[in-house]
Design a protein that fits this description.
Chain lengths: ~190, ~280
Amino acid sequence: MSDKNIKYITTPLTEETIRGLKAGDSVRITGPIYTARDAAHKRMTEALARGEGLPIDIKGNVIYYVGPSPEKPGQVVGSAGPTTSGRMDQYTPTLLEQGMKGMIGKGSRSQAVIDSIVKNCAVYFVAVGGAAAVISKSIKAQELLAYGDLGPEAIRRYDVVDFPAIVCIDCEGNDFYKVGLAAYNKE
Amino acid sequence: MRTIDVKLVTEAVGKLCKDSCYYLPEKMMAALEDSVATEESPLGKEILEIIVENARLAKETDSPICQDTGLTVVYLEVGQDVHFEGGDLYAAVDAGVADGYINGYLRKSSVDDPLFERKNTQDNTPAITHVKIVPGEKVKITVFPKGCGSENMGAMKMLKPADGVNGVIEFVLDTVRKAGPNPCPPVTVGIGIGGTMEKVALLAKESLFRTVGEHNPNPKYAELEKEILRRVNLTGVGPSGLGGTTTAVAVNIEYAPTHIGALPVAVNLNCHAARLAEVVL
């Protein structure tokens, strides 16, 4: 794989970093990212609705939509590829308003999410769905932070090094699912 | 008559669960490797390289290719001269699934009630078990773990006979376009045509058990498979749905006789992690 077109970025994300990313860019992410999927999103937005704080400091941070397979003895994490992001759409604008700057998942997002990404200067990355073993290699440590009772759906911090992803929706609202498909549609 | 202890079924299913989740079938691996060379999008090529590297790494390290190790579809072709002893056959299959998923470090994704409780059963049971009676005294077991990324993108439709070949092609293309990135392309497109509503869905599933590169023995259906594959790869969906010329690696059709007034069609998509393992007892 040629490295010349890959952008190396670190978390937490600054607006300067985000503005340098364009839909379709290949990136490698290094730093802490936070796991959450359906159940954790539901709890976080319910906590906010009650006027409570979030269990993690979300400002500038990236959430990874993942429900890993169990780790074997001695492994940091099991296979940990992205899950379908669309299921989180209804919760996402609320978290972006709280300062979340990035998401990693797979699959398309609603227009409301895209609008909120633009408004809040954020970015949506996709990881290669099903490339779970390769992705796991980039996860060097994990720590349980909240909602432990949710098992694989709990919120954890992953410390990642060169996590492979692609910029899908940039802060200008360009959606690479549409751009990329249009470029190769020959119907 | 041949007597088989259901313990053998449990042991075989347990091993097949692990093998299928760790080791991609060779022909599927070869098809993915070939697609790296033919893919026109540079980003698509890069994604295919990652997919191939991932399958290799999973095999080398006995790790799940994908963390979504699916619901476990188990297909038993049972010779009619076989007698099972030692317990309930379906329970024996489930015991094998539980063993494979717990001891193989596979993710448990089965919930007991689809609508209200949605409580995880903690061992990935029950399996989705299909039994087909065939001549002879052998038992062929196919284990086919199916993730929901691709399963959720399936569709079926009762077409009119007048819709004909073009109606089938358009329905398949529409399903692939709507699925977009969600089924983790490059996909295998499994198509059932004919029968009744439940029969056509099963035909679509069964078509996914076919080895990549093999075609329906009926030349008309084989031609249709090639034509639909060509058309699917013109949609532009591409690897991971991010654009490209490799949207599918195979299109498989199974068909069955149907009613004079019917043309049922079902499409069951499978992701690039096309996991399957089988054994004959």
